[in-house]
Amino acid sequence: MQGNTENLCSICRRREAFFLRLYSGERLCKRCFIHSIENKVRVTIAKYGMLDFNDRIAVAVSGGKDSLSLLHILAKIEKEYPKASMVAVSVDEGIRGYRDEALRLASLSCKKLNVEHHVISFKELYGYTLDEIVSRLKESGLEGLTPCAYCGVLRRKALNVIARKVGATKLATAHTLDDEVQTVMLNILHGDVMRIIREKPITNEAWKFVKRVKPLCEIPEKESALYAYIKGIKFQSMPCPYSSEAMRNDVRIFLNRMEEKHPGIKFTVLRSAERIRQALEKIEPKIKLRECASCGEPTTREICQACHLLQIIK
C-alpha cells in the first residue's frame, strides 16, 4: 500500500503520477500537469504585467511545440476576457521542406481554435527566401554570420511588421525557460553583457515597436513539449536544417547536461540574469530610436540591422 501511495500525484493525491518534476520534487498526474503549466503561464503573465484586459494579442506561431502550446494556452485564457482579442502571426522564412509543413500545422491549430491567422514571408518583405540568402552567401564566399544570425534579425523585424499590420497591442512569443537561459549564456560568450537588459520577459513601450511578452519564459522546454503531447497538439518535430550551425546548439547541450546533474540550474541562471539586469539598468543610457533611412522601421542607428544585412547580401 505504501508503494502505491508514493506513486500518487503530489497535488490531487488521487490519480497515479506519470511525471516527476525533478527541480521541485513533485510527482504529477496528466491532469494536474496540464493545470500546473496553464497556471504557471497565468502567474507569469501577472508577475510581469504582460497583458491588459483589452489587449489585441498577436501570438507568434511557428508551428513548433512551444508556439502551438502557447497558442492553445492563450486561447483558453483570452476567453475569460471578452474585451481582449487574439490573432496568430507566422513568418515564412522560405526554408524548403521545413517551413511548409510547419505553416500547415499552424493553420490547422488556428482553425481548430477559431483564431485568425496571418502569414508574412521573407520573400515578400525582403525579396529573398532564407535558402536564397544562404546560397548567395556561399557563392560570394562571405563568412562570419551563420544562417541563424541572419534569420534571427530578419524574423524579428518581420514579426514587428506583421504585428503592427494586424493592429496588435502585444506580440506574444513562445520563448521558454531554455530559450531565455541560452540567450543569457550566448550574450556572455559573445561579450555583449549589456544586451541582457533588452532580453527580458517583457519589453518597454517604444515608438513603432509592438510590445513583446514571453508568457512561457518560466516553462522548461521539455514541459512545453509534454504539454503539447498530452493535449494532442500536432506540431512539427523536425529541427530546422540550419540550427546545427549555430553556437546556441552547443550552449543548449551544455545547459541540458548541467540540468541533468543539478536540477533547477536553469531557473538559477534565469534569476541571476534578472539580478544582473537590475544592476545594468541603473547605468545603461536610455536608448533613442529613429527611423531607418532605408525602410523606415525603428532602429538605434541610421540603418537598421536587417537592412544592413540585406545590403551585404546584395
Question: What's the SSE blueprint?
Answer:
Elements: H1 2-6, E1 19-21, E2 26-28, H2 30-48, E3 56-60, H3 65-78, E4 85-92, H4 99-113, E5 116-121, H5 122-126, H6 130-140, H7 147-165, E6 170-172, H8 177-189, E7 211-213, H9 221-231, H10 247-261, H11 265-281, E8 290-291, E9 298-299, H12 305-313
Parallel strand pairs: 3-4, 3-6, 4-5, 6-7
Antiparallel strand pairs: 1-2, 8-9
Helix pairs in contact: 2-9, 3-4, 3-9, 8-10, 8-11
CATH superfamily: HUPs
Give, in order, the helices and strands: HEEHEHEHEHHHEHEHHHEEH
Rg over CA atoms: 20 Å
Distance between the termini: 71 Å
Q: Quote the CATH topology.
A: Rossmann fold
Task: Provide the CATH architecture.
Answer: 3-Layer(aba) Sandwich
Helix content: 40-55%
- Give the low-confidence spans: none
In round numbers, the mean pLDDT is 91
- Strand arrangement in the largest pleated sheet: 5-4-3-6-7
CATH secondary-structure class: Alpha Beta
Count of spatially separate domains = 1
- Tertiary shape: globular
Q: Biggest β-sheet: count, sense, barrel?
A: 5 strands, parallel
> How much strand?
5-15%
Quick one: how many beta strands? 9
Number of helices: 12
What structural class should be given to the helix and strand makeup? Answer: alpha/beta
Give short descriptive properties of this protein.
single chain; 314 residues; alpha/beta; Rossmann fold; 12 helices; 11% strand; globular
